[in-house]
Amino acid sequence: MSDDDALTRMRHAFAEVELPATRTLDEAYAVKVKYLGKKGLVTELSRALGSLPPDVRRERGQQVNALKAALEQAYDDHCRALTEQAEQAALATFEDLTDVVAPEPGTLHPLTRTRRALERVFASLGFDVADGPHVELARLNFDDLNIGPDHPARDMADTFFVAPPPGSRWQPGDLVLRTHTSPVQVRTMLERTPPIRIVALGTVFRRDDDATHSPMFHQIEGLCVDEGTSLADLRATLYRFVSALFERELQVRFRPSFFPFVEPGAEFDMQCPFCGGKGCSVCKGSGWIELGGAGMVHPAVFEACGIDAERYTGWAFGFGIDRMAMLMHQVPDLRLLFEGDVRFLEQFPC
Ligand code: PHE
After folding, report:
1. C-alpha distances in angstroms, 68 versus 8, 31, 163?
2. Structure pTM?
3. Residues 6 or more apart in contact with residue 200 via CB below 8 angstroms
4. What is the mean pLDDT of residues 81-98?
5. Is the Cβ–Cβ distance between 113 and 349 less than 8 Å?
6. Which one in 56, 103, 107, 286 has a CA-CA gap of 20 to 30 Å to 260?
7. Angstrom distance (rounded) from CA 296 to CA 234
8. Which residue has the higher pLDDT, 4 or 31?
9. Nearest residue to 294 (alpha-carbon basis) of 261, 323, 316, 313
């Protein structure tokens, strides 16, 4: 085998066999070292040139240098290709951000919509929107509303009591998750002077959990305090309200009932908006749908709030917003409203 053949074979082994077999820069470098490193095969050849006669050495030297240059070139090309491949592979793991489908715009939750619809109607009837905290003083949630210490609603079994923060001025039993929006009546009467006309909408909490009750639900409270206002105004307001909300004339009716903070007290129903009172599956044939409680503000509540019961009268009402949302949007199960299931929510597109 001639020396030329040996160089050709070395070039072939390096550039056609060993280098192409490498998949990483480290592997490629190891091959380079084997040939071109200090003790590499090609380096050995260069070193051996010294022992050749001068006339052969020159030509042989040029051949070896050409080989070196060829191997360097092959090495550089291979490394560039490896780097490019690695980059392509890394890019392939990224999502093509230009290829995503534009996200659908979100929509308002059906409860939020109902809430806003109620606020709009009451605003048009001259009511302000008031607010109160979810963690409430038991005094405002119960005592100031004439709900005495032994009233069953204060039972641990019905109410979530909140442990007072360590070092705070509150004792165990002083703080609750409000069980209704009625403490906003007290807050409003303590803060404002009559005439007062407010609605308060928000989350309330009770230890209830079944198909028609959730431990967290929503109420709207209404309060009017003025000179000479009466049950007739309460009734007219509720009548106006349900008629405006359902955009048809709907009657309301009162049934005598008891709430410690009103006297007289009532529960009130509206005519079924679906059958107009004839009787249908929604109203279970009765023609009426139960909404909530109402009545004239009890003098004991006025007293707790520093309002002169000789001069002013007042009325209040409260009912569940969730039930109203179910009616307005024909939702069959209360729990659907709280599960956050997109398949349910996307049925309310705008
Ligand atoms: N707070 C009462 C409840 O949660 C409803 C109500 C409000 C009753 C105002 C009368 C007056 O059941």
Report:
1. 12, 13, 82
2. 0.71
3. 129, 130, 131, 132, 181, 184, 185, 188, 220, 221, 223
4. 85
5. no
6. 286
7. 9
8. 31
9. 316
Which contiguous run of DSSP H or E holds residue 320? strand 313-320
Name the nearest CA neighbour of 223 among 269, 261, 179, 175: 261
Ligand 1 atom with the shortest distance to the CA of 179: 4
Tens of pLDDT, residue by residue over 266-294, are: 999 999 999 999 999 889 999 999 999 99
Local structure of residue 97 (DSSP, 8 states): G
One-letter amino acid for residue 6 of the chain: A
Return the H-helix or E-strand segment holding 35. Answer: helix 25-36
Q: How far apart are CA 130 and CA 145, in angstroms?
A: 17
Mean pLDDT of the 20-43 span = 93
Ligand 1 atom closest to the CA of 319, numbered from 1: 5
321 C-alpha to center of ligand 1: Å?
Answer: 13
Tokens of 136: 């409430």
Sign of CA dihedral 134, 139, 145, 147: positive
Mean pLDDT of the chain, nearest integer: 92
Angle subtended by helix axes 231-246 and 110-124, to nearest 10? 130
Pocket test for ligand 1, best of 147, 176, 180, 297 (most atoms within 8 A of CB): 180
Task: Give phi and psi for 185, each to the nearest 5.
Answer: -55, -50
Q: What is the mean pLDDT of residues 115-139?
A: 96
Ligand 1: residues with CB < 6 A are 180, 182, 221, 259, 262, 292-295, 316-318
Say how far apart CA 10 and CA 130 lie, in whole Å: 90
Cross-strand pairs, 294: 266, 317
3-state class of 299 per DSSP? helix
- Please list, in sequence order, all residues whose beta carbon lies within 8 angstroms of the beta carbon of residue 140, skipping any fewer than 6 positions away: 132, 183, 186, 187
Q: Taking a C-beta distance cutoff of 8 angstroms, is the pair 67, 49 a contact?
A: no
Three-state secondary-structure class, residue 216? strand
